[in-house]
Design brief:
Layout: E1 2-9, H1 18-37, E2 42-50, E3 53-60, H2 63-73, E4 79-83
Length: 94
């Protein structure tokens, strides 16, 4: 599976109460479970919440599945970018 970062424009998400984030996560998980039951390989790793955006990391067989999840869940996929390489501080050592 490929890894994708999904930028979602969601007004005021950064000030959302914990209960609202809980409900959103439950809804997303339900859509993912339905898709996985249909033999569609997609998995949510985690998300970062900042101001009016979320940045979500997903594993999926292809970008089309990310867009399908966005459509079915109602959470916009404003920008989807496939991650092709990863670096971190240890990259400087080797």
């Amino acid at each position: 599976m490929s890894r994708f970062v999904i930028e979602r424009d969601i007004p005021a998400i950064g000030t959302a109460e914990r209960e609202a984030l809980h409900d959103a996560a439950q809804h997303s998980n339900a859509v993912l479970a339905a898709m996985q039951a249909e033999q569609k390989h997609i998995q949510w790793e985690h998300s970062y919440v900042a101001a009016d955006k979320t940045f979500c990391l997903y594993l999926a067989d292809n970008e089309a599945l990310v867009h399908e999840h966005a459509r079915r869940s109602g959470f916009p996929a404003t920008r989807v970018t496939e991650i092709t390489k990863m670096i971190d501080p240890t990259t400087a050592v080797s």
